[in-house]
Fold this sequence. Notes:
This protein has helices at 5-21, 45-48, 55-67, 85-94, 129-144; strands at residues 28-33, 36-42, 76-81, 98-103, 122-125. By secondary structure, it is of the alpha/beta class.
Amino acid sequence: MKKDHIYFMKKALEEAKYAFYKNEVPVGCVIVNENEIISRSSNMVELLNDSTAHAELIAITSAQNYLNSKNLEGCTLYATLEPCLMCHGAIYWSKINTIVYGASDKKRGFSTYNLEIDRKIKIIKGIMEEESRELLDKFFKKIRG
């Protein structure tokens, strides 16, 4: 059975909800290869006390370990929030072909930069955007009181 963007984004949203309950910024990520999830993660910045422990980076490392390859060509990354510039760099270097994300990040998202790269990465945005945004808003309301 061919799974669609909604199916995989729901799985990323499950990861984001896990982060929410661990008091992390609720961002979730899954990486898909040949219509199957090969890695999943949520933000772990607070847990690991590591500013680079974004869901996307952890998922990329996990996917590379799963495939035993640094090359993730043919893979699609699903994230509930638009990846930041750091994560976009990792996506680029790992050769992921497609980024699918929910909510845009007008302040820190990669699309706020005028990136000129030598490889076309397909971008699909706004998949389950409302659900992703609501979880982020709920989190920041909770921590800011």
